[in-house]
Automatic annotation (TrEMBL):
InterPro entries: MFS (IPR011701), MFS_trans_sf (IPR036259). The chain crosses the membrane at residues 15-36, 48-68, 80-99, 111-140, 160-176, 182-199, 229-253, 265-288, 300-325, 379-401. It comes from Winogradskyella marina. The keyword Cell membrane applies. The lineage of its organism: Bacteria, Pseudomonadati, Bacteroidota, Flavobacteriia, Flavobacteriales. It is a multi-pass membrane protein. It comes from the Bacteria. The keyword Cell membrane applies. This is MFS transporter. PANTHER family: ENTEROBACTIN EXPORTER ENTS, INTEGRAL MEMBRANE EFFLUX PROTEIN-RELATED. It is found in: Cell membrane. Keywords: Cell membrane, Membrane, Transmembrane, Transmembrane helix, Transport.
Length: 423
């Protein structure tokens, strides 16, 4: 096997452009998420309203994902990515407008709240297309033999952008207010729209252009549910995000549990993702292709333990450490999952498999937000997080004993085969 090159993917110009676009988008999206959470909780002072935000984004993201996968496989990826960014800019501008002084002075709070929910719903529709489009585009930019390295840099860029987006979002709310923060987000989205044209159009690898939507969906779902490794990896991440995540109720912890205010809110959001910076350095120099399955199980288990500690903590510094470490484990898990999907998915099915991934993991972020809001309303925020972390540990333990294929997974031979083929 050839010597590992930690910067292999970064030697490709288009991949660097892709990373810049993705960073700008996620940086803005991350800020927008916590700004919306803060604004809605300020309007309602009700934990359940935070869960409703998750529901508004989950429903369209989940329901449209299968159809989005079919469309992505049959369309040119760069142009589709560009269209998604353009539509996302409309959402960002809409939120900027809704928080303007003239709207706040002339509209009732409920009208503003429902309009925010509407824009979040529209964002959920876009999320259904963003996931499979990005998943497919990466595979067309880099050769297969460096997929693990590309997955590492792409995932780390996502997490790194989340770090700074969350941190800046919390601070900017305190410094310049919600309205001007959303204006900055709109500018970031427009910047990504300009950068994306640095990527050339890509060939369409799925030649079955006359295939019906239903048959296309069946093929994609059959592939995922018949592969124990892919299904196991997706299930682990889905459960961890759905039950173990607590991002949607960080505002509750910041205001009511830790008494930390907007800045503490920013720290909590940033801490969860900042562990990925260490993950980025570690996984580029120390590949995760050997004993991949065991590393995935350990990382998700570690994430669950950290979330239990966070839920039980009443100290800001301990909560930040727990979330930081959970970010480290979550970063490893994400890199491994993306590597498994990139290596195990046929080229002509990337859109559909990416869509299923969005249904399992991407949409579970929003459904997890609903679960967190409801659980916090019923049991209180701390107990809700502790229970979610416990469910994560039970799932990992069950997967360890029941899914031998995932537990014993080693991707070393897959990488060696691609290097031998020169792809």
């Amino acid at each position: 096997m050839a010597k590992n090159d930690p910067y292999a993917a970064l030697r490709i110009k288009e991949f660097n452009i892709f990373l810049m676009v993705r960073f700008a988008l996620i940086f803005g999206w991350s800020m927008q998420f916590i700004v919306i959470e803060w604004q809605v909780y300020s309007l309602t002072n009700d934990e359940l309203s935070l869960g409703i935000i998750g529901l508004c984004e989950f429903l369209p993201a989940f329901l449209f994902a299968p159809f989005a996968g079919h469309i992505v496989d049959q369309k040119e990826k760069r142009n589709l990515f560009t269209l998604c960014i353009a539509l996302f800019s409309l959402i960002s501008f809409g939120l900027y407008w809704l928080t303007s002084e003239i709207i706040e002075n002339t509209w009732e709070a409920n009208y503003i709240l429902y309009s925010i929910y509407g824009l979040v719903f529209f964002g959920g529709v876009l999320r259904a297309f963003f996931g499979p489009t990005i998943f497919s585009l990466i595979a067309l930019i880099v050769p297969k033999k460096i997929y693990p390295n590309a997955a590492t840099w792409s995932s780390s860029t996502w997490k790194g952008a989340s770090v700074f987006g969350a941190l800046c979002g919390g601070f900017l709310i305190a410094w310049i207010g919600v309205h001007h923060t959303l204006g900055i987000i709109f500018l970031l989205v427009m910047l990504s729209f300009i950068f994306v044209f640095g990527i050339k159009k890509k060939p369409i690898l799925n030649k079955k252009t006359n295939e019906s939507v239903m048959n296309s969906l069946k093929v994609g779902l059959k592939f995922v549910f018949s592969d124990k490794v892919v299904l196991g990896a997706l299930t682990l991440d889905m459960i961890a995000v759905l039950f173990g995540g607590a991002v949607a109720i960080f505002a509750v912890f910041a205001k009511d549990v830790l008494d930390a205010g907007p800045r503490g809110f920013g720290y909590l959001n940033a801490a969860l993702s900042s562990g990925s910076i260490i993950t980025m350095v570690a996984t580029t120099y120390l590949p995760i292709t050997k004993n991949t399955g065991k590393k995935l199980l350990v990382s998700v288990f570690g994430f669950g333990v950290c979330m239990i500690i966070f839920g039980a903590s009443q100290l800001l510094w301990l909560s930040i450490i727990a979330l930081f470490l959970s970010g480290v484990f979550d970063g490893v898990s994400m890199v491994i999952r993306q590597t498994i999907l990139q290596l195990k998915t046929p080229d002509d099915m990337r859109g559909r498999v990416g869509a299923v991934n969005s249904m399992f993991v991407g949409s579970s972020n929003e459904l997890g937000a609903l679960e967190s809001g409801v659980a916090a309303k019923l049991f209180g925020a701390p107990l809700a997080v502790i229970l979610g972390g416990t469910v994560t540990l039970i799932t990992v333990t069950t997967m360890h004993f029941k899914n031998t294929s995932l537990r014993e997974l080693d991707l070393t031979k897959d990488i060696e085969a691609h290097e031998k083929d020169g792809v």
